Amino acid sequence: MLPNYLRFLIFMAFLGLSCSTKEVTKMTISPEEKIKFMTLDPGHFHAALVYKSMYPEVDSTLHVFAPEGAELKDHLARIRGYNSRTESPTAWKIKGYTGADYLEQMLAQKRGNVLVVAGKNDQKIEYILEAIRQGIHVYADKPLVIDAIGYQKLQLAYQMAEQKKVLLLDMMTERFEITTLLQREMSMIPEVFGELENGTAADPAITKESVHHFYKSVSGVPLVRPDWFFDVEKEGTGIVDVTTHLVDLIQWEAFPNQVLNTTDIQVYDSKIWPTALNLSQFTQATQKPIFSESLTKYLKGDKLEVFSNGEFQYTLKGKHAKVRVVWNFQAPEGTGDTHFSMMRGTKANLIIRQGQEEGYRPVLYVKLLRGDSLQLTQAVRNTLQERYPGIDLQVLPSGEFKILVPDKYHKGHEAHFAQVTAKYLDYLRSGTLPVWEIPNTLTKYFTTTKALELARK
How many CB atoms lie within 10 A of CB 450? Predict the structure, then answer.
């Protein structure tokens, strides 16, 4: 239960954020000042992916504050690997502090002006709040929060960030995936797409589904998961983790550049279910010979039940939406994580598939309902080609149209971290965020945490 004073502060924060409709000045970094990154407790490999590229405006000295252990070693090894690679090596100079008081030392030493956070999701909002109190900008991996209490603290964090004139942003890498970008672009061409249908529970207007895997390689190296990754009290259930990306994309595509708020949301169906791992699979993923004591509460017989899968349906401004996330242990050889997305318009459906037929690479298809193929051709070869030269169209025997995308646009998940980081740096230098970013971020986390509440009932 939150104390009364904190409830009052959160209420005032909500009022301030919901009533503001103009861009807020954030910049406290002058054009002459170098941006300096610090990393705190890097428990997730996404923290290292931020440093797979160099950024001209960022100081090459990286300060890391963390407890000792395998997670820190993995993080440092990945960055050193980027430094030593043959093609486009990075040049990060790592300076670190290790110890149980890593948070206190980061705040006391304040070696940088931007804090990168990617790790235990239950602790993340506390790190964010402490950094903002000290006037440190925060660049955090999703999810920022994993439950209703965390959501209330997030409202306070944004209020404090505005007062301190610092920038808090989560890494929405999926906005940079090319087929998702094109799906959004085409949905904004009424001659082709028409308008987004309202949809129904049985046939939503917009659907996002994602399949992930516990055991995989990152940057060519097998990923070793920390044992806490399988503890949903720390990582979050399937409802509040990967679904953060899916809900973000639904808002970003269905209502581009529009301010949304919690009154636009009605969650009406939600569920979670486990993926069962045997000891051999757990060991392969974590390099630990036995199930950790902290995970025994999730054991059912000789299997570890990880409640990483989730699905929920809701309406956003009256449009029915569905998100679904599934975690398997390992993808079949030659495959990987996959994504499915459909937007149903009055004139056409826009569908992203990433299956065997697509070579497990996302492909955008257009299924015309009442639309004109000539207008579709013009939209692709005129409107889209202006922004993405080389984009083209192919008619399939099924009657669907396949959007042909040159290889140069398929940058891959890891490369998206450099893209979203560059956008974050642009925001830092310009001093402003888009008017919709903060209210829509709060709406996003309101949606996921409400869905979790419903699933638990």
Answer: 20
